[in-house]
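ok so I'm stuck.
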Amino acid sequence: MTANEMYETSEPGAAGKRRDDDARLTACAAPGRHWFGLSGTFHTLEALFTITRWGALAWTAQAVMDRATAHETWGLVAFAVTSVLAVCAGWTAGTLADRGARAVATGLRQQLTGALLPTAGRISETGPAEAAWAMVDLADDVADFHAQAVPLRRSAPLSMVAVLAVTAAVHWPAAIVLVLTTALLPLNMRLAGLFAQHGADRQLAATRHLNAVVLDSFRGIRTLRELGAAGRRGRTLTTATERLNKATMSVLRRAFLSGMIMDVVITFSIAVNATYIGLSLLGYVHVPHAPRLTLFTGLVVLLVCPMYFAPMRARASAFHQRERAMIAAGAIRDIVKDTPAAVTRAAVPELTEPVGVSLTAVRFRYSGADHDTINVDADFAPGTWTAITGASGSGKSTLLSLIAGLRRPSAGAVRWRTLSVRQAPVLGGSAWVGQQTVLLDATVRDNIRLGRPEATEQQIRRAVDAAGLSAVIEGLPEGLNTRLGEGGWGVSTGEARRIAIARAFLRGARLWLLDEPTAHLDADSEREVVEALRRATEGCTVVIVTHSFPLAAAAHTVLAIDDGLLHDARPVNAR
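replied:
not stuck anymore, here's the structure
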């Protein structure tokens, strides 16, 4: 029975959607298919060695009964050798399957990375909680399923045929019992898949909700404490956890029920064969034309019978994992859809030339919005500072992201220009300093050269001087080798901003985009950051989004943005 047959519904298009989901899930296995194929081969060898091992054990038992010492010795040797071979084959199969799973997970994470990071003018709208969930959990869900299912698909038929053939060869009535019992299994396989998709949907929705709650809680813990809302947030977290627990228990109950029925079927088959063999050995039962049962043939049948049902048991348990993997593959598909298969990276403008910016009839509208967020015609001259002010939500940061190439305009064109180049924005061609400085749990030196790992010590020192960090570095316990805690523990907010300036300076970009670089700073720290920016951006083009008057006063031109429109350009002589 196929997976499609198990989950057919009367809903129009359900079968077609199921086929599409199957095809999508199958395609995910491509990076690890070679390893999975080898794993299936070794699983088959494990089954053959195990059959031989039980045959050797039965042979040894018969030899003990017959007092054939030579046969006992050879039987024990054969049992030991085949046991070692079976263990080795099983270990190799597991290792190969793990390697294939890593290849699948890596391939999926590479796709997600390409979709979540800005590429070719496209920026992902996926939230950080869902992105982390997809990277950490969903890729592993798909990989783990394939690591179990693909090798099983290759090895199960061969293993079952081998067991059935050996059973038929030594005593064919026992093989008939196995075949008849097999007919009961499709009903249980249907039960294994019954409502599995609904249960997996609920569980993954609850997981997604809990991930978002946890991430938002950690990210806003300081604000929650200041507002006295930590307790309420804790109750929200508890509710989300209970919801996930209920969904998980529902899935486990279904798995337990189908597993229990599978065990009943298997136990019934083994019990029938055991009873038949026992009564036959005692002389109470004899099937016409059947070969005479001996201790050897009876033990072989009893020992290999459980092996016949092992692949079916594994297949039944995989149905629930399959539903989880299919939903995971669908979620990943929704994230990576429309991602360019390959991104052609344009040449970064010459670093010796300041970069001007032209916006020609540029409009930008978010998906689902009923009006444009940006509607702009503007030119920013090379080598100048331009400050953009406006109310929160007026489109300042969106405009900056269009200039950087993080977003693609809905209409119009954004162009960078130098004396020799005129082209669309290039990701990585500009330096970005925002109001939230990302500092890694690493040394000051490693944080500064984050965007240019090959930078020399002299280049790092120049960046430190340009950002006005020399005195700060001298005051740290180990200078540039001082390790900053996660989130920048060990330096003030103003010092962290200047580390970001040094990092941007080291990049060597001649276009700087600044998004509220002095936000949340006191007057002294703001003055130090503005002075650092003046030194670091000498001869560069700078576009600043800010609410700060001192920072705006440092610009050549100040523009106001209101409902996406730029106006009130005026010269500023304060610089």
